[in-house]
Specification:
CATH architecture of the domain at 15-247: 3-Layer(aba) Sandwich
Keywords: ATP-binding, Cell membrane, Membrane, Nucleotide-binding, Repeat, Sugar transport, Translocase, Transport
Strand order of the largest sheet: 6-9-10-3-11-12
Strand content: 25-35%
GO molecular function, one term: ATP binding
InterPro entries: AAA+_ATPase (IPR003593), ABC_carbohydrate_import_ATPase (IPR050107), ABC_transporter-like_ATP-bd (IPR003439), ABC_transporter-like_CS (IPR017871), P-loop_NTPase (IPR027417)
CATH topology of the domain at 15-247: Rossmann fold
Number of helices: 17
Domain ABC transporter: 15-250, 267-511
Protein name: Sugar ABC transporter ATP-binding protein
């Protein structure tokens, strides 16, 4: 049930796009799109990765300029040459991929480029006060002077939201604002959105979390292959309507792979303890033990701060443990580094693909071959034919939609970038595959493909462990669901568990 007041009469649009076209070389990203934004309402934009959603939002916020078409703001034809011009007219955007400066503080990131000044210079005290007030409004206990690099991805997402809220915007565009947030944090954001719309702010909301988006929207628009395919009021929208107009058929995330027997224990975690990087006096993972068998798919669910990411990073060797053991097929790998664990057969697909999973200045092919580069080096020379074979096989295997191996990684949609990260790790032929939030920021079609890949690898005998903050994903391909809380395993369920059981075990409130 929606918690927003629905009215089909939204009045006059505050901002409209008329017949907007955008070309990137020979690619038509937008094909004559009409789009209206109304004051005091939430307009939700649905579509698969590559449908043109982010391109349209970049045009509306001054990041990009249209190849053709017109923007109309307050009955006036406008063309924004930059985001600064758009902000001056009251338009602000939260981008899908985090755009923070990790070496700067939370305060400095929020006010970067529009510092508060007084006669003596920048008023850092007032910036810190306003940053603290924004953190309070978002119910997040983050010190404004904390360096962004020291925050978890979800907390960085909160800072990104705070930066957009700090601008007194009439139109606020939110491109995947909840991709790294827990369910409780999403509800806090929704409270903020309702407060903003009550004050007349127009919200454009993009999300691949379909059921979540239905809770907040007033009306919806669907883009597909650069064209608008449908629009409707909230009263006329359900999940089936969204999926049908996005992808043309109902998708599900699959079911636990069957038809194969589990093998011996592939991964054994024994009393593992991982210190909390932000507070060394406490443990992010506290004496945790877990066994995963070959061919088994295990989902780790928990709220932010439960220790999911810290556990997976410690297992992969990306962070240090302070106690316990990690065994891979009976071999103690506790003291091996990341490269040695990859060589031994344990790999991690990280939560932040932009920062930790991809090299943005490299091509699709080079990104795919990075993890397995040692396998095609002969006498200190790189075998180009060997690399091409691995890359071509990987593109085909994980179904990356690309112009070819030479295409730059940044030209791919979020879903295809995620498949490149997974494909890169698959080229190492792992025995244990760890994935931290593998569906973050990707659409339902790409999500189904990712889970198909995981199920396929499990059927081939690979032990698969993935973490998620989306309870519906736990009920897809997992043979077993592990619920974490405050660094401990607090519950364990089989594939027949209910959404309510999993959420209740995590300490999360269950929506009626």
């Amino acid at each position: 049930m929606s918690n927003v007041e629905i009215s089909p009469d939204h009045g006059k649009p505050v901002l409209s796009a008329r017949n907007v076209v955008k070309h990137y070389g020979g690619v038509r990203a937008l094909k004559g799109v009409d789009f209206d934004i109304y004051p005091g309402t939430v307009t939700t934009l649905f579509g698969e990765n590559g449908a043109g959603k982010s391109t349209l939002m970049k045009i509306l916020s001054g990041v990009e300029q249209p190849t053709d078409g017109e923007l109309i703001l307050d009955d006036e034809s406008v063309r924004f040459a930059s985001t600064v011009e758009a902000q001056e007219r009251g338009i602000s955007i939260i981008h899908q991929e985090l755009s923070l400066a990790p070496n700067l503080s939370v305060r400095d990131n929020i006010f970067m480029g529009r510092e508060l000044r007084r006669a003596a210079g920048v008023d850092y005290a007032e910036e810190a006060r306003q940053a603290a007030a924004l953190m309070t409004a978002l119910e997040e206990d983050i010190d404004p002077l904390t360096r962004v690099a020291d925050l978890r991805v979800g907390q960085q997402q909160i800072v990104e939201i705070a930066r957009a809220l700090s601008v007194d915007a009439r139109i606020l565009i939110m491109d995947e604002p909840t991709s790294a947030l827990s369910a409780n944090e999403v509800q806090v954001l929704f409270k903020v959105i309702r407060d903003l719309t009550a004050r007349g702010v127009a919200i454009v909301y993009i999300s691949h979390h379909l059921e979540e988006a239905l809770e907040i929207t007033h009306h919806a628009v669907v883009l597909r292959d650069g064209s608008m395919t449908a629009k409707a009021e909230r009263a006329d929208i359900d999940l089936a309507w969204i999926v049908r107009n996005m992808v043309g058929e109902n998708f599900d995330l699959g079911s636990p792979p069957t038809g194969h027997q589990f093998g011996d224990t592939a991964l054994s975690v024994q009393s593992l303890t991982v210190p909390d990087a932000s507070n060394l006096a406490r443990a992010a993972v506290d004496r945790l033990s877990l066994d995963v068998r070959a061919g088994e798919v295990v989902c780790i669910y928990g709220l932010m701060g439960a220790g999911r990411t810290e556990l997976l990073e410690a297992l992969a060797g990306a962070s240090h443990s302070s106690g316990g053991q990690v065994l891979l097929e009976g071999r103690d790998i506790t003291y091996l580094d990341i490269a040695q664990r990859i060589a031994a057969g344990l790999v991690l697909v990280p939560e932040d693909r932009q920062r930790d999973g991809l090299v943005q200045t490299m091509s699709v092919g080079r990104n795919l071959s990075l993890a397995s580069i040692g396998s095609f080096v002969r006498n200190m020379l790189l075998s180009r034919s060997g690399e091409r074979g691995i890359v071509d096989d990987s593109i085909r295997d994980v179904r990356v939609k690309t112009d070819g191996p030479a295409a730059m990684i940044g030209s791919l949609s979020g879903g295809n970038q995620q498949k490149v990260v997974i494909g890169k790790m698959m080229t190492t032929h792992p025995r244990v595959l760890l994935l931290d939030e593998p569906s973050r920021g990707i659409d339902i079609g790409a999500k189904a493909e990712v889970f198909r890949l995981l199920a396929q690898r499990a059927a081939q005998g690979v032990a698969v462990v993935f973490s998620t903050s989306e309870v519906n994903e736990c009920l897809s391909i997992a043979h077993r669901v592990i619920v974490m809380g405050r660094g401990h395993i607090v519950a364990e369920f089989g594939p027949d568990a209910s959404k309510e059981q999993i959420m209740a075990a995590s300490g999360e409130s269950v929506a009626a």
